[in-house]
């Protein structure tokens, strides 16, 4: 089966590009990114705040089974053009990683399919590689102590 | 010069990737490898040196010649690097797609 999600990470660059085609009309794909309830469902995190507009912001919080918060992240939505693009930052809280800049481009392919392209810019090449090694990305369901384990192993 | 070369820096170069492909099926001497490329011999040697430094290739003395062969473990490490990251996104996007398909039919 062809891989629907493609990662392009050129060596020596502090960015990576994720592309994915969806069997969804453009409007539905975009909605999945701006509707807080829907975002919570597929990201598997609590969406504390999500203001999808120019100069908007968002905040995610993930708890474990006992209710302990294990993951927190937030960002600023620099711009949001419906069904076209979202430009935002992402930063994990209580983690030793710098903020990253994300360009999300939504594109109509057919009436019933669409494509999403996410370009992520990291502060350094090393940080990008580290984030990829750890499988890091917005909203991951990773317990914070597990994160600490991995980070300490990398040192 | 980097003392510890980054594997991913090593595979960024198209010639070095071609060398890895070439060596995937058999071990070869530097001369035999160089014969497959238009680049000058010292250039190919430099590529081999880089690939060896980052442990993607291993050297083996066979009589007077040095043969190069792929280090499968290190190669696996490279393949493993992006794949879990990609899979995580794949799963997340599959979920998104399913949720929105259900949403559409509501």
User: How many whole angstroms does the radius of gyration of chain A measure?
Assistant: 16 Å
Q: What gross morphology of chain B would you assign? A: elongated
Number of domains of chain B: 1
The SSE order of chain A reads EEHHEEEEEEHH
Cα-to-Cα separation, first versus last residue of chain A: 37 Å
* Whole-number count of domains of chain A: 1
- Characterize the biggest β-sheet of chain A: 8 strands, antiparallel
Summarize this, please?
With 155 residues, chain A is an alpha+beta fold. Chain A contains 4 helices and 8 strands, in the order ββααββββββαα. Chain A has one domain (15-154): 2-Layer Sandwich (Alpha-D-Glucose-1,6-Bisphosphate, Chain A, domain 4).
3D architecture notes:
The complex is a heterodimer of chains A (155) and B (106). Chain A is α+β, with helices and mostly antiparallel strands and 155 residues long. Chain A is 24% helix and 43% strand. Chain A has one domain (15-154): START domain (Alpha-D-Glucose-1,6-Bisphosphate, Chain A, domain 4, 2-Layer Sandwich), CATH 3.30.530. Chain B has 106 residues and is an alpha+beta fold. Chain B has a single domain, classed as Arc Repressor Mutant, subunit A. Chain B is built from 5 helices and 3 strands, in the order H-H-E-H-H-E-E-H. Chain B has a 3-stranded antiparallel β-sheet with strand order 1-3-2. The longest helix of chain B is centred in the C-terminal third of the chain and has 34 residues, at 72-105. Chain A binds chain B through residues 3-7, 9-12, 18, 20, 22-25, 28-29, 31-32, 38, 41-44, 116, 129, 132-133, 135-137, 139-140, and chain B through 6, 8-9, 11-12, 81-82, 84-86, 88-90, 92-97, 99-101, 103-104.
């Amino acid at each position: 089966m062809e891989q629907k999600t493609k990662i392009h990470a050129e060596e020596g660059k502090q960015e990576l590009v994720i592309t994915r085609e969806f069997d969804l009309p453009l409007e539905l794909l975009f909605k999945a990114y701006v509707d807080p309830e829907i975002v919570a469902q597929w990201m598997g995190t609590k969406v504390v705040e999500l203001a999808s507009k120019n100069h908007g912001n968002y905040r995610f919080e993930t708890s474990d089974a006992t209710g302990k918060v294990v993951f927190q992240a937030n960002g600023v939505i620099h711009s949001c053009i419906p069904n076209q693009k979202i430009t935002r930052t992402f930063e994990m809280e209580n983690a030793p990683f710098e903020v990253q800049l994300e360009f999300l481009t939504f594109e109509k392919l057919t009436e019933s399919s669409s494509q999403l392209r996410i370009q992520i810019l990291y502060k350094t090449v090393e940080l990008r590689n580290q984030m990829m090694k750890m499988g890091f990305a917005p909203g991951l369901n990773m317990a914070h102590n597990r994160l600490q384990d991995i980070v300490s192993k990398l040192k | 010069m980097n003392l510890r070369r980054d594997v991913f820096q090593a595979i960024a170069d198209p010639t070095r990737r071609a060398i890895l492909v070439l060596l995937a099926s058999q071990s070869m001497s530097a001369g035999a490898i160089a014969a497959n490329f238009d680049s000058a011999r010292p250039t190919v040697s430099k590529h081999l040196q880089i690939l060896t430094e980052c442990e993607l290739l291993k050297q083996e003395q066979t009589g007077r010649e040095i043969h190069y062969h792929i280090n499968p473990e290190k190669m696996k490490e490279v393949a493993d690097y992006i794949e879990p990251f990609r899979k995580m996104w794949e799963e997340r996007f599959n979920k998104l797609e399913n949720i929105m398909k259900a949403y559409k039919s509501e």
